[in-house]
Amino acid sequence: MCCRGVVLLVVGLVLSACGGGGDGGVTASPTRNSPGPETSQSRSAAPTRTTPQPEAPVVVLDPGHNGGNATALAEINRQVPAGRGRMKPCNTTGTATDSGYPEHAFNLDVARRVGDALSAQAVRVVYTREDDDGVGPCVDRRAAIGNEALADAVVSVHADGSSAQGSGFHVAYSDPPLNEAQGEPAQRLAGAVLASLAAEFPVADYIGEGGLSGRDDLAGLNLSERPAVLVECGNMRNANEAAVMSTPEGRQRYADAITAGILTYLRR
Known about the structure:
Blueprint: H1 2-18, H2 40-45, E1 58-63, H3 73-76, E2 79-83, E3 86-89, H4 103-119, E4 124-127, H5 139-148, E5 153-160, E6 170-174, H6 184-198, E7 212-215, H7 219-222, E8 228-235, H8 239-245, H9 248-266
Parallel strand pairs: 1-4, 1-5, 5-8, 6-7
Antiparallel strand pairs: 2-3, 6-8
């Protein structure tokens, strides 16, 4: 009798502690275990917090002309928009040294060297053309590539073909500007590239002023919605400059100077 009473009393206490199921009873909440000591497994499961990394700047390099242009005159003579309400040919063949070294080959080689150096500095590089046996692209398409890439800077690489007496490089930019990017940003880019090139090469003595040339007739600059410049590295008709441009060492010098100017502009 005593033992049975104790058992009944214990059962009653257990039921009371678990709660009743009728109206007015308290619904039991899910049991929450007290946190135990931290283990290596719980530490590894915790989310890792990382510092957000800035996006890599984008530079579009535009090697002027193309190796197949001379065999596709109908295509490159096709009229395309050039900005400011004008039309002009899709592209041209470019110039060459008196010994036959073509501008289109010079432009691509220098652009590739610049691109390699920029990529090594964590800059994302986009080219308007990547080989030297194609046709075009047209000048309006080249501008569109820079716009679509949302480029932080667009640099067209060229060499001039003026009279043999002229020498030196110059940097062209759109003037008067047609949008905000063509204003202060493009002029600052032009100034940075000018300063780097001027430390290595003479400025042009036949065009522009102090190595800068504001232009309103270059489609790639007129149609750009990003900061853009065009670099005429030198005069291929000048024997001294042609000799420099025709060597890998000379092209590397041009590439190093252009790269330094771009990185200065990007503040890297």
